[in-house]
Design the sequence.
């Protein structure tokens, strides 16, 4: 029992001494603050608070990280300290781009496999670095291939189940210079993954990160797997677009799994490298595809011929309580037709304590919603519109 406790605590220590953890946490704070700043520029109000976004990522990360860890431990996946260093360096390179859309185990894992395969044999004056280099050259490609597949599946699950939560409403410049609406799926998750590390002795001593070891006994380590999504959605509802992204990543996972399986059957480690490169290329193509959709597909959040287009709804507001969702149109307020935010606000004042809205959903179906207005409700009852009658395009689209 004491040995097991020692394993667990040594593994937890590897998580907190990994500098990538703190870089990912810093990125999470910075991107959350940037999101709030963009929403205020577009609507003069934030849809979600910065800390709300941060805390919302914790539980999904832990759930999916636990599932992935169980798979890795049962499969007996082990990564040597030098490989962990190389994988961390790959994540560091990704973070240097300051592009949340590139934060993916597909990109970091693909870079790691390609670098491990092509890195030359060389010596340095530092024994620790020489040991890491030797461990990289002795990489168990099948073990890392399984780790990569689990990482891709972790990314797929996070995007599919939580990627469309708390999307950020945006106002951007359209192709003809006018304002159009958009939704941005903008999340960062830090999933802790348990796996095995070869060490000397049964319970290792915690030394310089990562473990300094030459042995064949094993202990646990935890790697902070960073997953990010920054998908600007202009052509459809967020859930549809995000699920399409998740299906793409599932297909990427399947392709990589085929290469890893073939490497196991044919005893050809190079196939694992090809599978990692395929995952890397697939993820980059996905980023290009998102841009292609924005450039070639008609905008979904445009001004309707009548009424107002809804871009976002502030959580816990009257609009949210009434079940109004982004993409719908507000045609009438208190039986008065509205065509601007000023008219919407003016119509609300007809009954200061109560409102009745005529809503057109994305299928063109009409429905009526109504409810009491409380004293602490927002003056727009929490609805964020595509506005043509105030602010200027530069101010709204400045990122």
Sequence:
């Amino acid at each position: 029992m004491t040995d097991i406790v020692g394993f667990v605590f040594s593994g937890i220590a590897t998580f907190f001494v990994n500098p990538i953890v703190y870089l990912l946490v810093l990125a999470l704070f910075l991107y959350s603050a940037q999101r709030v700043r963009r929403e205020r520029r577009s609507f003069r109000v934030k849809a979600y608070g910065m800390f709300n976004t941060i805390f919302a990522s914790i539980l999904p990360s832990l759930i999916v990280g636990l599932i992935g860890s169980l798979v890795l431990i049962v499969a007996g996946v082990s990564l040597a300290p030098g490989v962990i260093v190389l994988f961390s360096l790959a994540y560091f390179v990704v973070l240097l781009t300051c592009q949340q859309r590139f934060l993916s185990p597909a990109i970091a894992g693909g870079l790691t496999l390609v670098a491990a395969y092509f890195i030359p044999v060389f010596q340095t004056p530092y024994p620790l670095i020489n040991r890491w280099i030797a461990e990289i050259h002795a990489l168990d490609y099948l073990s890392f291939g399984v780790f990569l597949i689990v990482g891709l599946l972790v990314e797929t699950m996070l995007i599919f189940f939580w990627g469309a939560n708390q999307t950020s409403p945006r106002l951007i410049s359209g192709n003809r210079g006018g304002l159009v609406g958009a939704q941005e799926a903008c999340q960062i998750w830090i999933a802790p993954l348990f796996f095995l590390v070869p060490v000397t002795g049964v319970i290792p001593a915690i030394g310089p990160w990562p473990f300094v070891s030459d042995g064949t006994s094993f202990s646990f380590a935890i790697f902070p797997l960073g997953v990010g999504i920054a998908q600007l959605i202009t052509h459809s509802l967020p859930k549809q677009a995000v699920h399409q992204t998740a299906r793409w990543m599932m297909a990427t996972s399947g392709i990589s799994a085929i290469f890893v399986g073939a490497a196991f059957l044919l005893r050809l480690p190079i196939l694992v490298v090809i599978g990692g490169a395929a995952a890397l290329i697939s993820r980059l193509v996905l980023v290009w595809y998102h841009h292609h959709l924005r450039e070639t597909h008609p905008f979904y959040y445009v001004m309707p011929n009548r009424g107002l287009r809804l871009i976002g709804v502030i959580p816990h507001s009257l609009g949210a309580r009434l079940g109004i969702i982004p993409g719908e149109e507000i045609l009438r307020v208190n039986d008065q037709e509205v065509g601007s935010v000023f008219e919407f606000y003016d119509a609300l004042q007809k009954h200061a304590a109560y409102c009745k809205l005529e809503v057109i959903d994305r299928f063109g179906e009409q429905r009526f919603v109504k409810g009491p207005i409380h004293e602490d409700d927002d003056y727009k009852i929490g609805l964020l519109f595509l506005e043509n009658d105030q602010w200027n395009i530069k101010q709204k689209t400045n990122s």
Q: What stands out?
A: The first strand starts at residue 168 and ends at 173. Strands lie at 168-173, 179-199, 217-233, 308-313, 329-333, 336-337, 354-360, 366-372, 383-385. The chain has two domains: 2-296, 308-397. Residues 201-215, 389-399 have pLDDT under 50 and may be disordered.
